[in-house]
Amino acid sequence: MRTKKYELLIFDFDGTLCATHNAIIEAMKQTFEFYKQPILDIDKITTTIGKSLEDTLFILSDGKLIKNEAVVKEWIKTYRDFYSSIWKEHTSLFDNVKEICADYIQKGIKIVVISNKGLDAINGALNYYGIMEYVSFVVGDEKGINKKPDSMPYDKIIEPNFPEIKKENILMIGDTDADLEFAKNINVDACWCKYGYGNIKKCEELKPKYSITSFNELIKVVG
Length: 223
Fold this sequence. Notes:
- The chain has ten helices and eight strands.
- With about 220 residues, the protein is α/β, with parallel strands linked by helices.
């Protein structure tokens, strides 16, 4: 049940707006195969969705790649090249994302997308699926911008763009503990997308104000 008027919605991308699970897994598998590394376990890849690529590669390589910054950068470029070549056939918007976002814009609600994903990949998908027109701007993995759950992207980018909107009228919507921790760090309400890729135990421990099992249920929270 809607309890307040939200004026700004901050959306995560992977597992919140878009089902990217299969594309991420395929691109990561191709990356490890390209470098002749052991085949990855799909479940292990899934646990890293929502993290930065640096953290993901650290986890999936059992800490080996993090020892060499140049190698990490090379692997990230390779992964992104693979992802950019396959994502269209392996991703899809969750049901009614476009229609619901369009309705919110008509109601005067602002939308921002923030993700630890590369900016080019987010922008490409938002344009491809026809929802970029509803988004005020996107915050992605860029040099000089700290990643969720650090509050820096909000403090330095989002808040200055919406100085008139109070934090009590902002809702963070995401599927992982990084999203929910980000909401806590910037002191705004959180809506947990249980249909996404987040760790259930970690997300439950963060006690988000709302939880939804499909994107359609966001209407019950925002209106």
